[in-house]
Amino acid sequence: MKVYILTLFPEVFGPILQSSILKRAAEAGLLKVKTVNIRDFAVDDHGTVDDYPYGGGPGMVLKPEPIYDALRWVEQDAGTRPYAALMTPQGRKFTTGVARELAERDLVALVAGHYEGFDERVRSFVDDEISIGDFVLTGGEIAAMAVLDATARFLPGVLGDESSAESDSFSDGLLEGPQYTRPPVFMGMEVPLVLRQGDRAAIVRWRRKESLRRTLRRRKDLLREAVLTYEDRRLLAEVLREEGIDGKDLW
Hints:
By secondary structure, the chain is α/β, with parallel strands linked by helices. It folds into two domains: 2-152, Alpha/beta knot (3-Layer(aba) Sandwich); 185-250, Trp Operon Repressor, Chain A. Helix content is 37%, strand content 16%. The strands form three sheets. A five-stranded parallel sheet has the order 2-1-6-5-7, with helices on both faces. The chain is elongated and about 70 Å long. The model has no long low-confidence stretch (mean pLDDT 93).
């Protein structure tokens, strides 16, 4: 997979691209990331990429020409048109499902804005608009990093254990349950006995049940939207009884 990141601050991506999983993915040839400085495509000799908004208002707005020209350059450099996504709080919510979608593409361009946003016409240059949450950042660089990192996890061979991404929170619509490691007892807190007894079927059942319990306690909205199997519903019924919750209140 090849990812181009269009940004005014390409230098901020260096540390994350030279660390941990993203670095190993690049070294293995599974992921190639190229930053593109939008300012290189400024419309004048002063490097101007933004201007005052028509109609007045605070801040500056990114001009359409530099972003358009940067995307055309990416197309020429890659030899084909990329799937371009705008990082914006007005976009569709970024989820594990969206990360999977992006991971299936060979060529993606992430456009990270800055200042007060983009000229509205920029939206006509891209294929997608993505938001990582209902809040506003000073720029789209952090959002682009999050999208890149989450997407890379679904590329075959990137994770040492291919099942890791499938067991993480949100992979099946639920939060991941508790995890433990040694020592078996720490400050009086014990690792659940079921995890130490070696009964694989019992462990799988316990983990699924605790995943349902954690989602119930912390994100009921996810539980309402999740596709649950017959066994999931049996486990959830047990959890509801143990938590003293009427199932009618959940649905």
